Amino acid sequence: MSSATVSSTLQVRVRATTYEAQKVLGFELVPLEPATELPAFTAGAHIDVHLPGGLLRSYSLLNDPRESRRYCLGVNLDAQSRGGSRHMHEQLRTGSVLTISKPRNLFEMDESSPFNVFIAGGIGITPLLSMIARSQALGTPWRLHYAARTRQHAGFLDLLAAYQGQPGADVQLNFDQEPGGQMLDLNAVISALPVGAHVYACGPQPLLAAYEQATFSLPPARVHREYFAAQEAAATESGYTVTLARSQRTLQISPGQTLLEGLLAIGAEPTFSCQQGICGTCEVRVLEGTPDHRDMVLTEAEKAANDRMMVCCSGAKSARLVLDL
Ligand code: FES
User: Fold this and answer.
1) What pLDDT does 156 receive?
2) Which residue's CA is the nearest one to ligand 1's atom 3?
3) Percentage of the chain with pLDDT > 90?
4) 25, 70, 165, 183: least surrounded by Cβ within 10 Å?
5) 282 lines ligand 1 (CB under 6 A)
6) CATH number of this structure's domain 9-101, picked from the four choices 2.30.110.10, 1.20.200.10, 3.30.565.10, 2.40.30.10
7) 148 has which bridge partners?
8) 280 lines ligand 1 (CB under 6 A)
9) pLDDT tens, 238-294?
10) pTM of the entire structure?
11) CATH superfamily ID and name for 240-323
């Protein structure tokens, strides 16, 4: 079960692939028609890439948002790959044509911040690279803490080296498996935040768990993060009834079944991608009932409003949900 529908797609060509680090390739995507522009994006945005077999994978755009003629991605070959990153690494070639979604942003910058601190773990550097470019354009000083096992595992170091010595730029590299290396001390990073700084983190689960703890007492509006993988299991403990308001259909979700599985089983065609509550593709408006939110996309305030939900992972606390589908 990995098909999806997307309303807003375009085709691009792979102009270049680059070796960036162990198991990390860079992809430069350009319009099919030379000298045309791609849809604009903002720092932190991602695109969904359509892959054979109906797979849809989300990748952050890492280039400067002022660039209108290319999208740049970094793709880590995931050992647990269900086909997405493996296809990107092994099948895509220079000249290949790809179908992608238009950019969407679930990891927005607050451009009023007086100082930005970026924390990257491994391939989590990608959305932060576009944010760094944006900070430079805005003249907002920034500091990056980039953690990887070794220098060989850290992609895009050349790109970062170009910021060396520029006013307001500070790149701190942390390689914990090199001789004398240590894990990045997030408590030290957070306690040294400049006044009013906003902090952005992207990386694997253990880094983000430590980040949540280290930033616990900061005002939530200054703390931003993007997850790679689900933090919570999907809500499948209980059964409930779902009415689809637009199509006037009702279905029963059984214990052990996700809402997305139930929707697909009756032939509904919700848009979805990650199936882990991290990309936001499957958001649906809730017209009645109380969702059991399990995603990493909505803020606590948005979850409390109970007027939308991610159907791939969230379920129902009430006996019935009415969805705008
Ligand atoms: S499909 Fe990604 S959040 Fe649901």
Assistant:
1) 98
2) 277
3) 76
4) 165
5) yes
6) 2.40.30.10
7) 175
8) yes
9) 899 999 999 999 999 999 899 999 999 999 988 888 888 888 889 999 999 999 999
10) 0.81
11) Beta-grasp domain (3.10.20.30)
